[in-house]
């Protein structure tokens, strides 16, 4: 039978304690760490804006961070939708779109400054 040395016990204990600290070191950063922007491609006061503001009031409590509603009206919702498509893909900009998003490709055939299938990722259906 092999005897256990003091050095072997200490190195094993050190490795064990170190392995307990690894999950804390590798833990993901908390989200969000800064305000989140929600772009609404319509002027303030409309239906999409009202629903967005009611929704962000509830989400704000869950996030523990402020949500800023950014209205970008005009151009049959193209101005705001373009701002959503060109935002950094870092999770700090969301867009609230409605049926115009789906009808504009047919109305403006090939003249939209974004691709509705390629430039967006749906997150939720409201």
Account of the protein in words:
It is a single chain. The protein has helices at 6-26, 47-63, 78-85, 100-107; strands spanning 36-40, 67-71, 93-95. It is mainly α and 126 residues long. The protein has a three-stranded parallel β-sheet. α2 links the parallel β1 (36-40) and β2 (67-71).
Sum up the structure in keywords.
126 residues, mainly alpha, three-stranded parallel sheet, 4 helices, globular
SSE blueprint and pairings:
Blueprint (H helix, E strand, L loop, with lengths): L5 H21 L9 E5 L6 H17 L3 E5 L6 H8 L7 E3 L4 H8 L19
Parallel strand pairs: 1-2, 1-3
TL;DR?
With 126 residues, this protein is mainly α.
Order of helices and strands: HEHEHEH
Please tell me how large the radius of gyration is.
Answer: 24 Å
Strand content: 5-15%
SS field, number of helical segments: 4
Strand order of the largest sheet: 2-1-3
Number of strands: 3
Main beta sheet: strand number and arrangement? Answer: 3 strands, parallel
> Roughly what is the average pLDDT, rounded to an integer?
85
Shape, principal axes of CA atoms: globular
Low-confidence stretches: none
Helicity range: 40-55%
Judged by helices, strands and strand pairing, the structural class is mainly alpha
Give the distance, in angstroms, between the N- and C-terminal Cα atoms. 68 Å
């Amino acid at each position: 039978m092999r005897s256990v040395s003091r050095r072997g016990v200490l190195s094993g204990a050190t490795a064990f304690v170190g392995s307990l600290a690894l999950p804390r070191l590798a833990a993901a950063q908390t989200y969000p760490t800064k305000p989140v922007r929600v772009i609404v491609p319509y002027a303030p006061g409309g239906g999409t804006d009202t629903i967005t503001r009611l929704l962000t009031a509830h989400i704000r409590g869950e996030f523990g961070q402020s949500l800023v509603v950014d209205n970008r009206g005009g151009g049959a919702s193209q101005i705001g939708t373009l701002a959503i498509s060109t935002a950094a893909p870092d999770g700090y900009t969301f867009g609230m779109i409605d049926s115009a998003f789906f009808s504009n490709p047919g109305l403006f055939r090939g003249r939209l400054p974004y691709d509705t299938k390629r430039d967006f990722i749906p997150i939720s259906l409201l």
